[in-house]
Amino acid sequence: MQTTNDQVLAWLDTFSPIASMKENPEALAREMETIAGVFTRETSGPGTIDKTFQHIKMTNTSRAWPTAAQVYEALREVKREKTGEKVIGSQTGDRFKLDAINRSKLENEVIPTAKRWLGQFPGLRKHAISVLLYWNEPLIDDNGKEYEPSGKLKKTDRRKMYA
After folding, report:
1. In angstroms, rounded to a whole number, what is the distance separating the alpha carbons of residues 138 and 121?
2. Which of 5, 6, 14, 75 has the maximum number of C-beta atoms within 10 A of its C-beta?
3. Quick one: which of 59, 38, 60 has its CA closest to 49?
């Protein structure tokens, strides 16, 4: 059975390498690792990889490799289709457009702070919800309680509170 990396590398061979990287094997290797890493981190189950490959082939406008951002967006779209999740607004954040420092700040400071505000500070809950929805994060506070976009606890969590 092929690993995720093997599947991704075999799939990338169906495209032409990015022209600016053809002469630089180190850059090609880094790009392949980045794209394979996106699949490894974001793949949610069997069939997701193949559906993502199909999605990218349908939407890719060139024969060049897709970017990591295109792969990430395709994976998110496949996950949405799989779960029946609706896209919340047309404005969502793209982590791959952030440089490494800002992505690190987002993941280590902004998202955890928003999750803390969600549960501990009712006055900041609306802002926390908008931040979490913008970055496509689940509305779960740092204590594991799940909220609706309206700011109310989900019914299953209310029952747990009083049990």
Report:
1. 18
2. 75
3. 38
